[in-house]
Diguanylate cyclase (GGDEF)-like protein
Amino acid sequence: MLVPMTSAMRSPLRQRAPWPLRRAGTQTPLVVKVAGPVVALCLGAALVLDVGLANLTCTTSDCQRVSDRLSWGAAAGTAFAVVVLWVVFVAVVGRPTRRLAEVARRVADGDLSARVGVTTDPTRPPRDELVLVGDQFDRMLDALVAEQERLRRLTEELEHRATHDPASGLGNRALLSHQLDAALTTPRSAPLAVVKLELDGVDVIDATIGHGVGELVISTTALRLSAAVRSGQSVYRAGGSTFAVVIDHATDEATAAAIARRLLEVVEQPVDVDGATVVLTACTGTVLHRPGDVRTAEDVLRDAALALHSAQTTTSAGTSEVRSAMYTPCLREVAVERSRTADELRAALAGTPGAGELLVHYQPYVLLSDPSTVAGFEALVRWQHPERGLVSPADFVPVAEEVGLIRPIGLRVLEQAAARSAAWHGLDRSRPWTTSVNLSPQQLLDVDLVRRVREVLDRTGLPAELLTLELTETAMMLDLDGAARRLQTLRDLGVRIALDDFGTGSSSLSYLHQLPVDVVKLDQAFISRLGQDATALALVRAVLDIASALGLTTIAEGVETPSQLRMLTELGCDKAQGYLLSRPVPADVAQELLVGTRALGGVGAFTSGAVGGAAPRR
């Protein structure tokens, strides 16, 4: 409500003199310097600051002019406030928002080092929401970087595990192939050599000393090989008990062969494990890759494996003391022939026409108390090949073991021998003829062995006590506990168990009372030295005495001279077999020997593909 102004007050107003205003109901003047826009701006600001027109007193006409001024001032004041607010907005909101956007773009481009750069007191929550957003954004980036680092370390660990052996820490076959490929594709001025080295009898060490000892021995060997190699030579664990050494600069074959021999010397140093001393042996195969040769890593490793196989074969045959071999192209030809033999053997097992037939021949053994009496036979497999004739087991059994055919072959021999023995038993039930069948290590490891033998006995009708299963010491050592359980179950059925080639394996005489065996067969290596070597005589006598004390039957293998037969009789051996008495013969000839229509010693003309020495038995 406006209060009328006095005439004394109007004149100064018209003359733009100082203008006294007062609040309604008060006597306090509010003096405003009416100076054009400045006054209007101030009055506008006063309006903004809640100094209302309703609280001002002036005349109607003067107030109209003031009102005009105030309208312009209000607009200007509002604009001023907007500008102030915009400046505040840019400072408080715009700049942090642009910073957030910039950091987000850098992060999107892969730069995880970018940060908003806002720091807050962790004990007090931030008052500004943008500060909170920036702080949380930086924390998210910190967590993302930490996770990325964790994933990087995990990836490196997985890559290391994929390319390295966990037990030895050496590079594995995958890393070997990768690095060898890289070396072969690099231009070379000197030959590169690869030596493959395989330890012998690690499975036997596990079985005889304790589970896991073999792996400890391998780890120790890995450390020794790593320490033995020189600059430019790298050691890898190619799998199992096999190592590979890559020689980056091998001058020639002689240099590579010398390095292979040095590696063998390192391996053959005694290893102490849990109080036991283990002496290892090994074989090596070496291949030389010359500049200009076109080979892949797999080609080189295959050729090294062929050389290793050659060394193992010659060593097992007793014809090599070096225990190493160098690759030659003829080894590949041998491998091709071995592959062809495996294919033909599969066809023969399947009964494919024209593939030949697997036969069983029988070598008799006699009672030394009556050498003219046949006490039984050992069943031995032969292969009647359509082109090569009668093939000795020495030529195809190793191939069958390599390609996994030895189990079906062994089962085939067991079936045929049991059926034949049952037929012979029907000829004269008063004579307890027995038939022995060899078990391969793979068969002995078969968890279904007992079931298979029981089924064969049921199908053929052969009494269990007339069947003897022969196995070697080494085969039993592969899984001593499991083999002992299976053999004991077979004995419970009535089957007799014979320990073949005794004295040549890894066990000792003390194992005889631990193993469920009924028969001990003395190896030909001892029998052939009787009368020539006092040590051989002492060993044979010791074995016979211990076997007699344990109630075991003894059979001497490979008897070839009358003097050997006489000495064995004097030493108290129970039975004997060998070329002096008879070679392995077909089933019809064996039946003639059994019933007495053919005399022992008169069957020497019936050969079975074996020439000289004891016949190979499988």
User: Anything to note?
Assistant: Residues 1-56, 602-618 have pLDDT under 50 and may be disordered.
